[in-house]
Design brief:
Elements: H1 4-66
Keywords: Membrane, Transmembrane, Transmembrane helix
Biased composition (Basic residues): 47-56
Pfam families: DUF8005
Length: 67
């Protein structure tokens, strides 16, 4: 009976901490594989949009100078 108590204790601790560590690792991998690339894609899109607006504005200024 006395050898069963440590087994149950360590087994319970293993199960408890396994899911706790699994959750932390899953969160880190989600941040690495989904959140960071999403932020980079968003910033890239904002830069492209700003560049497109700047080119359109320059094009309109050139057209106005021609008339």
């Amino acid at each position: 009976m006395s050898s069963l108590v440590p087994l149950v204790y360590y087994g319970g601790m293993f199960v408890l901490f396994f899911f706790w560590i699994y959750g932390i690792a899953s969160f880190v991998l989600d941040v690495k594989n989904k959140v960071v690339p999403g932020i980079r894609r968003y910033r890239r899109g904002r830069k492209k949009l700003a560049e497109k607006r700047r080119r359109e504005r320059e094009h309109e200024e050139k057209e106005e100078q021609l008339y």
